[in-house]
Specification:
93 residues; alpha+beta; 5-stranded antiparallel β-sheet; 5 strands; globular
Length: 93
Amino acid sequence: MQMYFLHLNVAQEHVVDTDGVELSDLEAAKSEARETIRELAAEYIKMGKPLTLWSIRVCDADGRLLAEVAAAEALHEVIAPVFDGPRGPDGHL
């Protein structure tokens, strides 16, 4: 298990993860970042606020950037299928 830090890249600031999370590998850390983005988006929707999170930066204990997961990418995986689904005969949903 390795320690990963998921720093939030928000519109006007960076929110530093000081706790970190122990995960098996970088793929697990990226998956955790995608899940965190989705959870934050759901909370913002419930509050009626715009989501200003651009990405989560996955870093190691030394602060090195290992990966960055874009909010648009994480949300597209769960939202786009609704909009990309079957269309009626006239091309509309």
